[in-house]
Amino acid sequence: MPGSALACALPPSVILTLPTGHYITGAALTVALTATLGALTHRLPQLQAHLLHRGPDRWPLMLSSCLGFLAFAVLVGVGVFGANDPLHNLMTLVFWTGVWIALPFGSMVLGNLWRPVSPWTAPVRSLRTALGWQGSIGLSRLGHWPAALGMAGFSWFQIVSLAPDDPGHLARVALAYWAVILVLAVAEGEDWLEKGEFLTVFFAMISRIAPFWRERSGGQVATYAGWPGAQVMRMPPLDLSQMAFITLTLGALSFEGLAETFWWLGLIGENPLEFTGRSAVMGVNTAGLLAAWAVTALGLWGGLRLSRWLAGGGFDAGPVMLSFLAIAAGYHVAHFFVTLITTGQYTLWALNDPLFRGDEFLGLPPFFISFGFLTDPFFMRGVYAVQFAAILGAHLLAVVLTLKLAGPGLRARGHLPMTLLMTGYTIFGLWLMSTARGV
Questions:
Q1: N or C: which end of the chain has fewer CB within 10 A?
Q2: Torsion 418-422-427-432 (CA) sign
Q3: How far, in Å, CA of 398 to CA of 426, rounded?
């Protein structure tokens, strides 16, 4: 007898056959109950940092940064003169899979992994010494606004522009950006990178949820361990430019996932199974990205203002916005996990045999790249479990941090708007991971 069948022609969409609605409902209830019980009982984890070791800072930063710069220069050369195929060119593979996905994942566990390999530190320090220039031109007064502008431009390039994966185009854009930042950092000083360069700021922020980290001061380095969020509790309140940076990051991550969904493609008049190309949707996707930033900013600002009014005080934006660092990190993991385990295979292959001569520089034997696991229901349950855990865990941590950072002695009802915001954000994030995608 005929019966209904759950099926989809797109391999990753085997997730559509899972009972994701139950997952989403359970996650939403978990976030809501955690926030409610925390607000009523005030019984929250301490999130303390534990000192593991303190000693002289002997890390050869100049050497590691020089190696990072040399690697960047080689990648740019490969991007310009190498193969045009993004899946056979180290520039595209290393940047999008290594720098933008794998390195942030590692930083969420082991602390900031970008700082030692930044391709600007050594060149800036060397040029300032060679030029005898130790002054500044006042860029530091702009706070983190240059980094926020950089994140906005990068998000547009990644999500909207015509060819972010084209090796030559990516290499030329990266080289131009590197040169601009180099000139500005030489003029202002090496420390300006921590405010003005978006990758440096991004890694510094998402690494704040790592359970292991290092703090440097006065030639000394201290190694700490603690529950995720322990670093956040030690941070000073954010200023407006830092809050703008977090808002831009959250909005871009949300829209990047939304722009691939059947819902969005249907809304803009695109057939999800016959996508006409990025050039046809550049205008509407630019508008959508701007709208995502605006909705994110207004939602966060409105939630904080309403919570402050109901609680009779507290909920200052500077401290409370720190809690959204957890959500930014969790969304990054959930959104890019599938890319890591698919395109990451090409990256390993290219690093192992960069000249395609049968070399084994990483000691890996020849292997076949396969995406067949995307059609395996058992494996895809595991993939969705990782995405589910990343989003739910991030929101639970954000709830705990919000309860601790909102301020003492507040009326419990003041937490209701932020609880609703966190719950809605959880539902939206998990829906993005489980809905049909067209591109």
A1: N
A2: positive
A3: 11
